[in-house]
Amino acid sequence: MLEVLLGKWGHEVIAVSDGTEAWAALRQKDPPRLAILDWMMPGMDGVQICREIRTLSERPYTYIVLLTGKDRKQDIVEGLEAGADEYLCKPFDHDELRARVRAGCRIVELQERVAMTLEELRVQASHDALTSLWNRSAILDILQRELARSERESSTVSVVLADVDHFKQVNDSHGHRAGDAVLREVARRMQSLIRPYDALGRYGGEEFMVVVPGTDLAGGQALAERLRAALDSEPVDSPGGPLHITVSFGVAVNKGTKAIDPLIQSADEALYRAKSRGRNCVEAGLSGVAQ
C-alpha cells in the first residue's frame, strides 16, 4: 500500500522485504535520501538501522520516517533519539504521511543546496577564478605536504616554475581580454600534460607552479621541456587574433627535506637564468637540491 501511495505522489520507490535489505540499500553508493522504516522487521529492526546510518557521517544525509505500531511515549522518544526524523504510528493517516514526506523532501533539498554552496565556496577558496587551477595558497600547501611526505619516505619532489614571456606586451598591445585568453590556454595545455598526481597552480600574475612528486631533477627538466614545447608549438587564439606565446621554466628538486623556501628560491633563480638566456627555455637549479 505504501509503495502504491508513494508512487502516486510522484516518488521513485525502492521496496525491500526486511531490515537487512533496507540497510544494504541505504549503504549503497547512491542511497535513497528519504527512508520510511518499520520498527519491527526481520534481520535488522528500524531503530538499529537509524543508529547505524547516523554513524555514516561522510555520506549524504538520509531523512528517516519511522512508521510503526509502537505508540507509547517512551517508544517515540527512543525512535527519535536513535536518529529518526519523524515518527508516525499505525494505522496512519494518508494526508499526514504525505505532509511528513513532503517536509522531508524539502529538508533534503535544502541540505543538497547547502552542500552545493559549501562545495562552491571551497572551490573558490582554493582555486584561481580565471584558470580554475589551484591558487597560490593552495599550491603552496600542496608543496608543503609533498615535502613532508618526501622527508618521511626519503624521496624527492621537483618544483617547476613557469613564466609567460613578454606577457605585459600582450596586455599592452592586445588588451586584457587577450591576456586572460593566453593565461587560460597556457593553464589548459600544461594541465593536459602533467600526471594525475602532479599539481599545477597559478603562482602569480603570469607565473605558474608545478609540484612533481617522486621526480628527480632530470625528470623535472624533462617535464618542463615537454610543457615548453607544447606551449611553443602553436599560437593561442585570442579576441585579437592568434598570438604566438612562449614560456620560460625554472626547475629545482629537494632531497628528503621539507624546507620549502630554499626549494622555491632555487627554482626562481633558475627561472631568472632562463629569462636571461633569451626566454623560451628550461633552466635547472644550480645545485639541483634544496637543503
What order do the helices and strands come in, and which of them pair?
Elements: H1 2-8, H2 19-27, E1 34-37, H3 46-53, E2 63-68, H4 73-82, E3 86-89, H5 94-126, H6 136-153, E4 157-164, H7 167-174, H8 176-193, E5 199-202, E6 207-213, H9 217-232, E7 247-253, H10 260-276, E8 282-284
Parallel strand pairs: 1-2, 2-3, 7-8
Antiparallel strand pairs: 4-6, 4-7, 5-6
Helix pairs in contact: 7-8, 8-9
Provide mean pLDDT, rounded. 91
Uncertain regions spanning at least 5 consecutive residues:
287-291
Structural class: alpha/beta
CATH architecture of the largest domain: 2-Layer Sandwich
Taking all Cα atoms into account, the compactness measure Rg is 29 Å
Q: How many individual domains? A: 2
Instruction: For the largest sheet, list the strands in their spatial order.
Output: 5-6-4-7-8
CATH class annotation of the largest domain: Alpha Beta
In sequence order, what are the helices and strands, one letter per element? Answer: HHEHEHEHHEHHEEHEHE
- What is the name of the CATH superfamily of the largest domain? Reverse transcriptase/Diguanylate cyclase domain
Strand content: 5-15%
CATH topology of the largest domain: Alpha-Beta Plaits
